[in-house]
Amino acid sequence: MATIPDDVKRRTEKSIKKHFYVALQYPLASDEEMTARLGDHLDYLSQYEDKIFLSGPFVRDGATVDIGLTVLKTADETEARQVMDAEPLIKLGLRRYELHLWRVQEGAPTVTISGIDGTGSIS
């Protein structure tokens, strides 16, 4: 690994440096087979919202494509793999995933949550 220049170290020393596990998911079955189990997939995601920070499909020209992404907020890789391995589409062999450790270093996300109706947004 290359040595990081001192000026870059100084500029990034106060950065976010928050770690997440990111799972890229790829289809192993037809859209019809996966769509038939989409309810199970959505139920699972809602049950594990404490471990799943963000999740959703990639989109091209307004339509979803085969690849999905899930950002996990787990203690370690073992826990991240447990969450992903138990996800219904993966457990049934309809999708596979690649897991990566991701360090958030830059950005300025805004999270808005309504205390009245529990709705929220990220921008």
3D structure, described in words:
By secondary structure, this protein is an alpha+beta fold. The protein has helices spanning 6-12, 31-36, 38-47, 77-85, 88-91; strands spanning 18-27, 52-60, 63-72, 95-104, 111-113, 120-122. A 4-stranded antiparallel β-sheet has the order 2-3-1-4. A two-stranded antiparallel sheet has the order 5-6. The chain is globular and about 55 Å long. The model has no long low-confidence stretch (mean pLDDT 87).
List strands and helices in order, with pairings:
Layout: H1 6-12, E1 18-27, H2 31-36, H3 38-47, E2 52-60, E3 63-72, H4 77-85, H5 88-91, E4 95-104, E5 111-113, E6 120-122
Antiparallel strand pairs: 1-3, 1-4, 2-3, 5-6
Tell me the strand percentage band. 35-45%
CATH architecture: 2-Layer Sandwich
Q: In the CATH hierarchy, what is the class?
A: Alpha Beta
* Count of helical regions: 5
Please trace the helix and strand order, writing H or E for each element.
Answer: HEHHEEHHEEE
User: What is the topology, as strand order, of the major beta sheet?
Assistant: 2-3-1-4
Helix % is: 25-40%
Q: Globular, elongated, flat, extended or rod-shaped: what is the shape?
A: globular
- Can you summarize the main beta sheet? 4 strands, antiparallel
**CATH topology descriptor:** Alpha-Beta Plaits
Contiguous low-pLDDT stretches (5 residues minimum) are none
Give the C-alpha Rg: 17 Å
Query: What is the number of E strands?
Result: 6
In whole angstroms, the N-to-C terminal distance is: 34 Å
Structural class: alpha+beta
Mean pLDDT: 87
